[in-house]
Design brief:
Helix content: 10-25%
Strand content: 25-35%
Structural class: alpha/beta
Strand order of the largest sheet: 5-4-3-6-1-7-10-9
Number of strands: 10
CATH topology: Dihydrofolate Reductase, subunit A
Largest sheet: 8 strands, mixed
CATH architecture: 3-Layer(aba) Sandwich
Mean pLDDT: 96
Number of domains: 1
CATH superfamily: Dihydrofolate Reductase, subunit A
Shape: globular
Radius of gyration: 15 Å
Distance between the termini: 14 Å
């Protein structure tokens, strides 16, 4: 089983407001695409609704409590256990939101965390706290702000300590 999560967050762990992203960073979106392409991506229903359509070239999986829900182009699961059982043989990419990250955190092997160099005070969704001693930093890459990216950000890759 290989379970990974990918997230972009502010310096104070903010990830969203009103079911929307807090910034537009094309270089970070390109990282997201490179990291998730051709892999199954799992998200909560609200996160899917914020996207409006399935992500191309990926198996889109939506975790929801709503029995009987169907979404064109997506597969539906109703529990962490069901998701792991069905998709645990591939690198399953957890893509949010906050509640979904919290549910899957105990099972995650790898985290791709982008830290955006900004503090957001009015956010309503935050990445959950986790024990940093459970993970080992294996790579960091900093991208400086430019005409397309409004903030500096650093992409960190962590593996769970075995």
């Amino acid at each position: 089983m290989s379970l990974s999560l990918i997230v972009a967050m502010s310096q104070n762990n903010a990830i969203g407001l009103d079911n929307k992203m807090l910034w537009h960073l094309p270089a970070e979106l390109a990282h997201f695409k490179r990291t998730t392409i051709h892999k199954p991506v799992l998200m909560g229903r609200k996160t899917f609704e914020s996207l409006g359509k399935p992500l191309p070239n990926r198996t889109n999986i939506v975790l929801t409590r709503q029995q009987g829900l169907t979404i064109e182009g997506c597969e539906i699961v109703h529990s962490v256990e069901e998701a792991i059982e069905k998709y645990g043989n591939e690198e399953l990419m957890i893509t949010g939101g906050a509640e979904i990250y919290k549910l899957f955190m105990p099972y995650v092997d790898t985290m791709y965390i982008t830290k955006v160099d900004v503090k957001i005070t009015n956010a309503d969704a935050f990445f959950p706290c986790y024990n940093e001693n459970d993970f080992h930093l294996i790579n960091s890459e900093t991208v400086l702000k430019d005409e397309k990216n409004n903030y500096d950000f650093t992409i960190h890759t962590y593996n769970r300590v075995k």
